[in-house]
Amino acid sequence: MSAHKRKLLATVGKGSAGKTTLSRYLRHVHDVRGVPVVSCDADPINSTFSRYYRDAERVPRGRDVDIQNFLRDTVFEAVLSGTNVILDLGSGSEGVFGHWGLAQSIGQIAADEGFDLWILGVFCTNADAVTSVHHVMSQITPAKYAVVFNHGRLGDGDFQNVQNHEYFKEILQLSPMPLIIQEPALETSIYQFLDGRDLTFAEALATDCGLSRMAIAMLRAWLARMDAAFEQVIA
After folding, report:
1. Between the CA of residue 102 and those of 12, 86, 90, 105, what are the distances in Å?
2. Is 85 left (phi over 0), alpha (psi -120 to 50) or beta?
3. DSSP letter at 208?
4. pLDDT digits 0-9 by tens, 7-52
């Protein structure tokens, strides 16, 4: 990741889709490569990301307009300082985009300041979740779009249901056409271990947290596969 290519990376997805795991990976990449970043747990209902990164900004609970102003200020301050931004958006963010035009504000600020804005929609087993992901992805313009199939949470039959959804087909028609990313599966036992202890990937690799040598090797291999899968986003 180039320190000179400023990025605003927003992950979108319903609960249990793996959105926050992706946000954690993106933050991990920034930290490992020494690239300054502002992280924001932008889901006012399920504040999961900030469990792992306690320095993450957290949106206030309350009126949509308060959330909107907070996020706009967070993004704008990061833009002015030349810092990258990670927004972990969830289903709790949907009303904000629907009522107050925050999506257009974020998109316009990023465009005006020369940011590389990526909207990453994470999909798993629940075809019903396509509607809310479509709502957010279609609202944030101008942007680059990525459709992320999380193979850790996605079965073949369920994928077909997602692929056949009317709104998913509309997502594929966004301009420019979304990048299709196959997100590799993280071993379930490793995921559960880290999740149960609120450990970042770096903490799991750098400390004697109880992971076996084999599990650590598997985690390193997964991170390498993630680097390859998201190369166009993080380059």
Report:
1. 15, 16, 14, 5
2. beta
3. -
4. 999 998 887 788 999 999 999 999 999 999 999 998 777 789 999 9
Which residue is listed with tokens 């390193």? 220
- One DSSP character per residue, 11-74 reads EE--TTSSHHHHHHHHHHHHHHHT--EEEEE--SS---HHHH-TTSEEPPSS-HHHHHHHHHHH
Name residue, tokens 């990453």: 120
**CB within 8 Å of 27: residues ≥ 6 apart:** 37, 39, 53, 86, 200
What order of strands is seen across the sheet that includes strand 37-41? 57-58, 37-41, 84-89, 7-12, 116-123, 144-150, 179-183
- Locate 27 and state its tokens: 């933050």
Radius of gyration of the chain (CA): 17
DSSP state of 209: S
0.85 exceeded by pTM? yes
| CA nearest to 79, candidates 48, 44, 40, 27 | 40
Helix, strand or coil, per DSSP, at residue 1? coil
* Domains of the chain: residue spans and CATH: 7-234 (3.40.50.300)
List helix spans (H) across 94-200: 94-100, 102-112, 130-139, 156-163, 166-171, 188-197
